[in-house]
What we know:
Elements: E1 4-7, H1 11-23, E2 27-33, H2 40-44, E3 47-52, H3 63-73, E4 77-79, H4 89-97, E5 101-102, H5 107-114, H6 116-125, H7 141-151, E6 155-159, E7 169-171, H8 177-192, E8 197-201, E9 207-216, E10 221-233, E11 236-242, H9 249-266, E12 269-279, E13 282-289, H10 296-303, H11 307-315, E14 332-339, E15 341-342, E16 347-348, E17 351-352, E18 355-357, E19 364-368, E20 375-376, E21 383-391, H12 394-407, E22 409-411, H13 417-425, H14 427-430, H15 438-451
Parallel strand pairs: 1-2, 1-4, 2-3, 4-5
Antiparallel strand pairs: 6-7, 6-8, 9-10, 9-12, 10-11, 11-14, 12-13, 14-21, 15-16, 17-20, 18-22, 19-21
Helix pairs in contact: 4-5
The structure holds adenosine-5'-diphosphate (ADP).
Adenosine-5'-diphosphate is lined by residues 131, 156, 162-166, 200, 202-203, 206, 208, 232, 235, 275, 277, 286-287, 436.
Amino acid sequence: MLKKVLIANRGEIALRIIRACKDLKISTVAIHSTADTNSMHVRMADESVCIGPPKAGDSYLAIPNIIAACEISGADAVHPGYGFLSENPKFAQVLSDHKITYIGPSAKHIELMGDKVTAKKTMQNLGVPCVPGSNGVIKNFEEASEVAVKIGFPLIVKASAGGGGKGMKLVLNNSSLESAFKSAKKEAEAAFGNDEVYIEKYLTNPKHIEIQIIGDGKGNAVHLAERDCSIQRRHQKILEEAPSTILSNNERSDIGKICVNAISKLKYSGVGTIEFLYSNNEFYFIEMNTRIQVEHPITEEIFGIDLIKEQLKISSNYPLSFKQEDLQIKGHAIECRINAEKIPEFSASPGKIDTYHAPGGLGVRIDSALYAGYIVPPYYDSLICKLIIHGENRQEAIQRLERALSELIIDGISTTTEIFNIILKNRNFIDGSYDISWLENLLDEQKKVKKN
Length: 452
Ligand code: ADP
């Protein structure tokens, strides 16, 4: 087993990883910027190293500083969490060059899936169904027009290096194709330093359904069913649930087998998520994330499995602790992402937390690094708290979530908590009939009602 893990992250995910390490009796090293000196992950780790000033580029993204922290602390492995360097093949490679274990897949697999065009081609060749679109990167407007004629409108221009919904442009007709193509390239260059874009058929009203997989790097793999992440705003997930209300057992098993076959053939190592859009009973691959995801706890809740522990075990060369036939879904789980943002604008709302009270009871889990007196810094992601609910069935999970939300107190700053009360009361949510545009439409309607 690994002896000492350095966590190259902050906030709730750093704390989450520290907990899994402690359960396995692995020592932990927190790294932090000067803005995070008083953070919970620093307090809870066995050791900590300050790696730079607040700006992420000078601290959490500074590879030489992190390598130095490994050397100082004697860590034999690094867990990247999500965000920051978690999908950076160079980071995985540099660690491996320094004989430090990267807790995640190989640099080769991170690179393969990090480029969405290559990822799509790879998955297509492995028999995974994909969204129809361009056969690779679109070089110029003429090529974009040719693809548009072939697949028709609406279509979506997407950044090959994309992430977080950036560099994505919806095109409804020919007249806006050129400007969308140019602005997607510009946005992609600014966000990722890579202006390559590709085109996909824009699927109207699909669901976002993703499959959790784990491989041991030797060709053994399992899937842990799906998460429905269709409740989004600006292509960003807000609430996720598992299992999806819409899939039949046969559909779940069929898409699971397709994913397991693909990652077994790749000899993929570690956890990963294969993301699909789901429309008219068909799955369309959009991308693969080669890391732990924000919403992983809902899968843990329905299977009773600690995914971070599994990552640590795989990186210690242990075989998978379970086989596909051991994995049975139990009940239903929902996660709410609570952000330090002011609604309805969703503008950042950093500052001091005056009062903090976390809900509790059976089936209520909070993954958060908050405490009363903590100052949410303005430099990083606005996610401050994940409320994760498990129930025997969906109805019980919804009721429990309503109750837990009523107990939660985060005073001092604005948060997005109220949005979940709006979602939970809506009939479409209650009957599960929502798609990726549903929340955005609901918020637009509410704005109009308020204006009138
Ligand atoms: P990112 O990596 O930037 O998050 P994804 O490819 O994962 O980008 O897509 C994020 C979201 O954007 C999806 O969940 C979906 O809401 C929307 N989206 C992406 N591709 C399409 C498409 N072809 N048709 C319709 N919506 C899409």
